[in-house]
Amino acid sequence: MTFGTTLKSCRHLLETAKEQAVEVVGISFHLGSHGLEPQTFAQSVAAAQLAFEMGTELGYRMHLLDIGGGFPGTEDTRARFEEVAAVINSALDLYFPDGCGVEIIARPGRYYVTSAFTFAASVTAMGEVPGEQPGSEGR
């Protein structure tokens, strides 16, 4: 996971938020975007559902699930977007079915911009640039 906490720490964080009178409205996670297996997304949705249960037990009325981003945007990635989307949708249908009152959002920025351009360059010469010597002070 790129951002967030473990499920193990979740109850403590929710309890601490409750003690501080913080209104928790949902769960957010972001897995990152570096060659994740599609099942990682499904496992995270399942963990989010457990976190929702913890929040409900503590009296929160949580209604927002942010599944983050990191979705593949090119065909040469380990998991294609269609495969990842199918796994996520199956997990959402299982753990957060229609009518459960949870709004689901995602941040698909990488998916949209990964293939937006290609950069090509020709290397015409190479050389070694010596680093600063200690004590040279830029002279």
Automatic annotation (TrEMBL):
A GO BP entry: putrescine biosynthetic process from arginine, via ornithine
UniProt-listed InterPro entries: De-COase2_CS, De-COase2_N, Orn/DAP/Arg_de-COase, Orn_de-COase, PLP-binding_barrel
Pfam families the record matches: Orn_Arg_deC_N (PF02784)
Record-level GO cellular component terms: cytoplasm
SUPFAM superfamilies linked: PLP-binding barrel
Signal peptide from the UniProt entry: none
The Orn/DAP/Arg decarboxylase 2 N-terminal domain, residue ranges: 3-113
Coiled coil residues, start to end: none
Gene3D superfamilies, sorted: Alanine racemase
GO MF, one example: catalytic activity
Protein name: Arginine decarboxylase
Organism: Limosa lapponica baueri
Highest classification ranks of the organism: Eukaryota, Metazoa, Chordata, Craniata, Vertebrata
